[in-house]
Amino acid sequence: MKSIISIFLCAVMSVFSVGSAGENSEGYEKMTGLPQAINALIHTKEIMNTDYVGEVSTEVFDPSAEYSLEDTCVLIKEKDKDFVILNLTDIHVADYDYRAFTAFEALATAKRLVKEVKPDLITVTGDIVCTDSTVYAIKRVTDFMDSLGVPWAPVFGNHDGEGNCDLNYLADIMLKSKYCLLKKGDARMGCGNYVVNVAEQNDDGSLNVVQSLIFMDTHGSHVNELQIEWYKWAAEGIEKVCGKPVQTSAWMHIPMADYQFAYDLAWDKDNNRWNDGFAAYGECNEKICCHRDSEGKPIDNGLFAAMKQVGNTDFVFCGHEHMNNFSILHDGIRLTYTMKIGIASGWQPGFDGGTVVTVSDEGITSIVHKTSSLLSFKDLEIINTIQEA
What is the DSSP track for 332-343? Predict the structure, then answer.
């Protein structure tokens, strides 16, 4: 009963801070207020009788093509100033079930995070929407993100495409936001495989790339072979273009099997502590739901080995598990769960917030989980990554 009351109160209290009905510049009705959630509930049968299908990308990945910065999104970092990334994950907004109402709390928390962190980029590691109808939910989230006025780069999770909107439709709606950086990419690789480069501008107008973010669609469980080939092409290509080493990071929803391998090595279950030598932080409170075989054993799909082979990917970020936030330095690559936002679809106290990733001209220098605490945020363990080099 207490949880039902809290959901109702957060919906009523947040409706005015998050927005209300209206028409946006792209012509679809805004879906950020309580009236829309109620409207979706009333018209459940009507909206469920329609399948919303988006445009399939015609882009084709050619591994023999030369990598070009012009084919990526480039965000400019000010010299001598950190570039701040705020990651949100597993918002789980629905059209008409209880998650239509818990979304008020999640979006209000996101708004407060943006105000406190002042990010230069917002990344979203999947499960943005969920359940059997998401046509209102995706417009609601997109309009909210657009209202923040910050570039945002999403990837899809396993729940995003489970309803009456396919991933291409969801992408088409998100791309109506002038701040959304998503690119669909080659349809054989899924939807949402693309690169965002963070660069400083030199006095002569040339670019000094300090971080290359590679976004990957993990489908229902893992990336495919073509995506691994594309990843290698992108990670190697940025260094060829720049003529120097460039740190890259991978962003996805479902963790690689190596998250399980790393945890098994780093966690001392007998003494309930992290082993030395892994610079590990955080908690593992639920099963690591990586790709597994019929017996439940993790399947190594080769992506981690490709990262080791290329040699410039130092960080991997994922979502998916709502009550895991651990970060482990595994064989030279830091594997990190990002902090879930919101109280929908599996939650426990202390796991409602976001993850702040700081980029300097040396690359990623720190990772901080921020968890909502009353009307403020509490910083959990700060991972100073430069000290690990």
Answer: TEEEEEPPP-SS
Q: What is the CATH number of domain 2-388?
A: 3.60.21.10
Structural Rg of the chain based on CA atoms: 20
Sign of CA dihedral 357, 301, 332, 210: negative
**Residue 76 half-sphere exposure toward CB, CA atoms < 13 A:** 7
Backbone angles phi, psi at 220, to 5 degrees: -90, -15
Whole-angstrom distance, CA of residue 163 vs CA of residue 385? 39
Contact 82, 365 (CB under 8 A): yes
- Asked whether 91 and 121 are in contact (CB, 8 A), the reply is no
309 SS3 class: helix
Q: Residue 120 — φ and ψ, nearest 5°?
A: -90, -20
Does residue 168 sit in helix, strand or coil? helix
Distance CA 161, CA 134 (A): 9
Indicate the pairing of strand 121-125 with strand 152-155: parallel
Question: With 90 as the cut, is the pLDDT of residue 278 above it?
Answer: yes
Q: Where are the alpha helices (DSSP H) in the chain?
A: 2-18, 34-42, 44-48, 99-117, 135-148, 167-174, 225-242, 257-266, 303-310
Count of alpha carbons within 13 angstroms of residue 7, beta-carbon side: 15
| 295 vs 22 pLDDT, higher one | 295
β-bridge partners, 73? 196
CB-CB contact of 319 with 125 (8 Å): yes
Q: Which residues contact 269 (CB under 8 A, 6 or more apart)?
A: none
Q: What angle, 0 to 180 degrees and rounded to 10, lies between the N-to-C axes of helices 2-18 and 99-117?
A: 50
Predicted model pTM: 0.91
Question: Which region holds residue 88: left if phi is over 0, alpha if psi is between -120 and 50, else beta?
Answer: beta
pLDDT of residue 272: 96
CA distance 284 to 321: 9
Residue 29 clears pLDDT 60, i.e. is over it: no
Instruction: Report in angstroms the alpha-carbon separations of 166 from 150, 203, 216, 292.
Output: 25, 45, 17, 25
